[in-house]
Amino acid sequence: MKSRKLLMIPGPIEFEPKVLQALGAPTTSHVAPNFIESFGNCIALMRKVWLAPTGQPFVVAGTGTFAMDMAAANLIEPNDNVLVISTGYFGERFAEIAKRYGANVTILASKVGDIVSLDDIEKALSTKKYKLLTITHVDTSTGVLVNPKPIAELAKKHHTLSILDGVCSVAGEEIRQEEWGIDVVLTASQKAVGVPPGLALLVVSQKALEVFNNRKTPVGNYYADFNNWLPIMKAYESRQASYFGTPPVNLIAALEVSLLQIVAEGMDNRFLRHQKIASAFREAMMALGLKLLPVHKNLSANTLTAVYFPKNTTGSIFLSHIGKNDVILAGGLLPSHKTKYFRVGHMGSVNNNDIIATIAAIESALSASKFPFEIGIGLKTALKILND
Ligand code: PMP
């Protein structure tokens, strides 16, 4: 198909045909037996994908920002101390959200492309009692990957709840919510979960629900209130219909299809596939002589890669060359560096062919920009890793 373009941005991503078919199927009633079954299944499947057998899933119409808002609205009360560990744009956003609910927010921000050290986190947790901390697993603005496991351990030690913004990581990066003791892991449908935009997805630990149940003040956001959504999740899970707000019927049907595919692949296989494809792409970029935005390749995410534009090129022209080769990539997002780098999403059902096509399009754009490099070296480097 001549008009077909490969969408390789960090969300929305390319979706599986069966997921899109579910989205395009006739819309049923939200109390129809087939929909009740799909919704109930989604809740059980989320526990498997999040690796959180006793967690409480929430499926609500909204975007990733709403998932962040929902976590904050329910777990923060005015004057609570909140520690935000920020590696970029979305860390800053979490701080803004927490402030809206009256939190005293402390931000521990990394340098661009770097992470916050565990020592600094431990120091902060030792000097003040924090009700909760937030971690951005993969900040989509920088492509930096944070290891949430030791941070969640520190949080537990200091009796602080941990919230993981997994919008750019759930179902792509390794997350073992229950084993690692993370209280909330949230995401949105349009990234590695593999469903078009429109669903906010959260899994909340029993401990966090207990903290919620002991609130002294009402939740300051009617739509986000767990009190409104918890009975709905429990009803559908026990295969009964219930109503608070009309569920996005087709998106939830599509979610069931995608979660079934994810579980069929197996979480360990899925994590490994993302790691291998990301490694092939990163090594290819470096072999071409391009520089990654993360200060060390070990800090680079497996769901997306942020790469500096080659010197002396105009980013928009470079990206339009890639577009002419039928691959769509994203520009920068971090305000201070916006025009200096581009981002490539490689998550969800991404396969070896997609990444090879993307590297080929980048090589073509480099040639067109008269950038000095050995043509084919990126492809060769990637193939070596992919074929291993
Ligand atoms: N957090 C992260 C890490 C993200 O990447 C995004 C979206 N790019 C969001 C939050 C916000 O999600 P949404 O755009 O769906 O509101």
Describe the protein's topology:
Blueprint: E1 6-7, H1 17-24, H2 33-50, E2 56-61, H3 64-75, E3 81-86, H4 89-100, E4 104-109, H5 118-127, E5 132-136, E6 138-139, E7 144-145, H6 148-157, E8 161-165, H7 177-180, E9 184-188, E10 199-204, H8 206-213, H9 226-237, H10 249-265, H11 267-287, E11 304-308, H12 315-324, E12 327-328, E13 330-331, E14 341-345, H13 352-368, H14 377-386
Parallel strand pairs: 1-12, 3-4, 3-5, 5-8, 8-9
Antiparallel strand pairs: 2-10, 6-7, 9-10, 11-14, 13-14
Helix pairs in contact: 1-10, 2-9, 2-10, 3-4, 5-6, 11-13, 11-14, 12-13, 13-14
The site of 4'-deoxy-4'-aminopyridoxal-5'-phosphate has 12 residues, from helix 3.
Share of β-strand residues: 15-25%
Q: Main β-sheet, in a few words? A: 7 strands, mixed
Order of helices and strands: EHHEHEHEHEEEHEHEEHHHHEHEEEHH
> What is the number of domains?
2
Q: Could you say which small molecules are bound to this protein?
A: 4'-deoxy-4'-aminopyridoxal-5'-phosphate
What CATH calls the topology of the largest domain is Aspartate Aminotransferase, domain 2
* Helix percentage: 40-55%
CATH class of the largest domain: Alpha Beta
| Fourth-tier CATH superfamily name of the largest domain | Type I PLP-dependent aspartate aminotransferase-like (Major domain)
